[in-house]
Specification:
heterodimer, A: 141 residues, mainly beta, 1 helix, 4% helix, B: 298 residues, eight-stranded mixed beta sheet, five-stranded antiparallel beta sheet, 2 helices, 19 strands
Chain lengths: 141, 298
């Protein structure tokens, strides 16, 4: 059955918890190519190098009825008194839902930058950027 | 239901200054005692004939260039209120009443006195008197509430969150430049848009139904005659246009935007006034047609 995916189908999970009030996410994957062209060759040749994954997401700065604020939780990954250590990775799942089927990309990331603020006439949002570390842990897209 | 025509609407306007005050210095040579005329450095068009000026010294000294006989109790103070007549050279004459200030003649002219020192002054256009805007042929007012899209991933329907309220509108009037005691002319709004230093703000009451008006048809009770409903807000003049055609009356179209809160108010109960012991009404200062009212009817 034909299916077009939209923001309606998107989800974002941090450490297995679906985040509330996510307005967007993006993921960029890249592969570094190493050139292996040698003297006497007429065409350039390459071999795969290392992969890199990074992206960004935007969450409304929003308290639900129980005082849960996922944007604040994400912000605290960077906005904190204590320094960030190697153990401060989060398991990130970027998901597109199709009925009972989830199309996921899972990876461990560091939250590398956050920004949020208040503007007249606008809803306060937390914009976060993340940097993947290591290989993807699952891909079911 | 009653059927109402636009003739029951009207516009009341109060002069005021919005963005700030004008500070300057009155030098001894700025005061012409023989003509009771003075001046100080201000941008042309900043002050308009008929403006009620609050003039204060900024160093706490008295306003010595206004003669003692120009004060209500013949005593000179550091601050006072007068209506201004601005002549074509930027000279200022002070008057005790709005009507006298429009003429710019010697009637009601506040006498000045020579000074021997520089007097630093602060000038503010006060907002005290309300007048009908004359010759208005039509007006429209739009109020708009902005919404912010707070839809998130997973939503099937857009969600909106209410944000800021804005208002804007346009009025059209037959052009006239003579301001009468009870009415402002649209020429004042055309001057206002060009005023730089103290802004182009005015306080407006845009009546949907003025008092002493009735419905054209349909149900209408006798007790509704004195009812009045109006929008009330501060507005900035953003555009003034005048159209000329050989076969048409000269009209001026004024565009404005609201700044600050916009209130839709209603007066549906009989007005009550605070009375003196002899049952006479208490007149408001310098306006014998207005009286001190009580806030809440019995």
């Amino acid at each position: 059955m034909a299916k077009v995916y939209t923001g309606k189908d998107g989800r974002l999970l941090l450490d297995g918890t679906e985040q509330i009030k996510v307005s967007s996410w993006t993921l960029t994957g890249s592969l570094e190519m190493l050139e292996t062209t040698t003297l006497g060759e007429s065409q350039r040749s390459y071999t795969p190098g290392v992969q890199e994954f990074n992206g960004s997401a935007s969450l409304l700065y929003y308290n639900d009825g129980n005082g849960r604020n996922d944007a604040a939780t994400a912000l605290k990954k960077v906005l904190r008194v204590a320094g960030v250590t190697e153990s401060d990775t989060v398991a990130l799942t970027l998901r597109l839902v199709e009925g009972n089927t989830n199309h996921d990309v899972q990876l461990n990331v560091y939250i590398t930058s956050v920004s949020f603020g208040a503007s007249v006439g606008e809803v306060s949002r937390a914009d976060i950027s993340f940097q993947g570390t290591g290989a993807l842990t699952a891909v079911t897209i | 239901m009653g059927i109402y025509l636009g003739q029951i609407g009207t516009i009341e306007l109060t002069r005021k200054s919005g963005e700030g005050v004008k500070e300057s210095v009155v030098n001894p040579s700025d005061v012409n005692v023989s003509r009771d005329r003075f001046s100080f450095d201000f941008e042309e068009g900043s002050l308009l004939t008929g403006d009620l000026l609050e003039i204060s010294t900024t160093d706490g000294t008295n306003l010595d260039f206004v003669a003692a006989s120009g004060w209500p109790d013949n005593t000179v103070y550091p601050s006072g209120n007068w209506y201004a007549f601005i002549d074509e050279l930027g000279g200022i004459r002070l008057y005790s009443t709005f009507a006298d200030s429009l003429e710019g003649s010697t009637a009601g002219l506040v006498p000045l006195a020579a000074i021997a020192r520089d007097i630093p002054v602060r000038v503010v256009v006060r907002d005290r008197d309300t007048r009908i805007l004359g010759d208005v042929t039509e007006y429209e007012l739009n109020t708009n509430r902005e919404v912010v899209d707070v839809s998130v991933l997973g939503d099937e329907y857009r969600q909106q969150y209410s944000s800021l309220i804005t208002g804007s509108g346009r009025l059209t009037a037959h052009w006239d430049y003579v301001t009468n005691t009870g009415e402002e002319s649209v020429n004042y709004l055309m001057q206002l848009v060009l005023r730089t230093e103290v802004g182009s703000i005015f306080h407006g009451k845009f009546y949907i139904k003025a008092a002493d008006t009735t419905a054209q048809a349909g149900s209408f009770g006798a007790t509704q005659i004195n009812d009045s409903l109006w929008w009330e807000f501060d507005a900035l003049v953003t555009n003034a246009a005048v159209s000329f055609a050989p076969d048409s009356v000269i009209t001026a179209a004024i565009d404005f935007v609201a700044t600050g809160p916009i209130k839709l108010r209603a007066q549906t109960q009989e007005k009550r006034f605070l009375l003196q012991e002899d049952t006479g009404k208490l007149e408001l200062e310098q306006d014998s047609t207005s009286y001190l009212m009580l806030e809440e009817p019995e």
